[in-house]
From TrEMBL:
<dbReference type="GO" id="GO:0043190">
    <property type="term" value="C:ATP-binding cassette (ABC) transporter complex"/>
</dbReference>
<keyword id="KW-0813">Transport</keyword>
<feature type="binding site">
    <location>
        <position position="94"/>
    </location>
    <ligand>
        <name>phosphate</name>
    </ligand>
</feature>
<dbReference type="GO" id="GO:0035435">
    <property type="term" value="P:phosphate ion transmembrane transport"/>
</dbReference>
<dbReference type="GO" id="GO:0042301">
    <property type="term" value="F:phosphate ion binding"/>
</dbReference>
<feature type="domain" description="PBP">
    <location>
        <begin position="34"/>
        <end position="325"/>
    </location>
</feature>
<dbReference type="InterPro" id="IPR050962">
    <property type="entry name" value="Phosphate-bind_PstS"/>
</dbReference>
<dbReference type="Pfam" id="PF12849">
    <property type="entry name" value="PBP_like_2"/>
</dbReference>
<protein>
    <recommendedName>
        <fullName>Phosphate-binding protein</fullName>
    </recommendedName>
</protein>
<keyword id="KW-0732">Signal</keyword>
<feature type="binding site">
    <location>
        <begin position="182"/>
        <end position="184"/>
    </location>
    <ligand>
        <name>phosphate</name>
    </ligand>
</feature>
<feature type="binding site">
    <location>
        <begin position="46"/>
        <end position="48"/>
    </location>
    <ligand>
        <name>phosphate</name>
    </ligand>
</feature>
<feature type="signal peptide">
    <location>
        <begin position="1"/>
        <end position="25"/>
    </location>
</feature>
<feature type="binding site">
    <location>
        <position position="76"/>
    </location>
    <ligand>
        <name>phosphate</name>
    </ligand>
</feature>
<dbReference type="InterPro" id="IPR024370">
    <property type="entry name" value="PBP_domain"/>
</dbReference>
<keyword id="KW-0592">Phosphate transport</keyword>
<comment type="similarity">
    <text>Belongs to the PstS family.</text>
</comment>
Amino acid sequence: MTTAPASRFLPFAAAGILALTGCSAAPAPATPPISCARGAVSGQGSSAQTNAVNAWIKAYQIACPDASVEYTSSGSGAGVRAFLAGDGDFAGTDTPLSTADQQRADARCGTGRAVHLPLVTGPIALAYNVAGIDGLRLTPRTIARIFSGQVTVWNDPAIAADNEGTALPATRIRIVHRSDGSGTTANFLAFLTGTDSGWAHGDGSTWPLPGGLGQRGSHRVVAAIGRTDGAIGYVEASYARVTDLPAVAVGTAGGDFVTPTDDAAGLTVAAAQVSGTGGDLRLRIDPATTTGRGYPIVSVTYQVVCRGSVPEAARSFLAYAASDRGQEAAQRAGFAPLPAALRSQVAQAIAGLR
């Protein structure tokens, strides 16, 4: 490996653009470079964010050959447990730490509190595979009845009422859910419990009902949906897009049906409230208040780090991920970029890590 200074900047090119009149235009604004550091960085956790993290790792290591970054896609629950046991520089989790886990994380950190940095946001899609159905629309109440097993066939009157004029088959509904502890599960259940859906099975990161097709990891969820006629499941939207699975348009409190686009998820995240203090950027999202074009089932993936003892290479990598360039890379990987105001808060919080 070539020896390089501790801080390296990725070169950029800026060229003047000639207008059609032949006059020289002002150079385009330069994209800020990546500020690199030496060292190894490791993290583990949320499978929902894997595609974004892999895009960051690829770009960062091209720019920073003296850094090594590894991420293990183990699921939010496993990632948090590993972090609490002292493994890795950060844990990726789709839900904030519980009170008990926060206390354990603070004890693990020793030199400062464990803080949450939101870096990946995006819609959770209800992906489905039903021959003959396209453009499916479902209200929260119908979604709750499907996933609780009360509605068992696709031509049920409740589904028909949400899809007037659509010919629905009598295909049996096959539920696909996560079998491992998952932040995606937690966010989906938070949507069901936080809206007027009639859901009576609680929340949490573990799927609460027996039956269905339980799958470990987001990639296995979409694979199971794709090979099963009549299937429906919840998964981070980029996985549905890359496998060409259609996604449900979900009813909102305002009576609209909204598809899981990045822009629609961004509207919901932009309306969230920061509930943490001292650089801890937990977000409070209320799906019951989502109206207009905001999509109501969203995931915010946090990197949990120890404030006061973050290695320089980890700070450098996280700062890149939160930057405009890093968020553009995440967007190309299928995720919604952080809203501008939140991005600024995250950048400030990372700058304050030591």
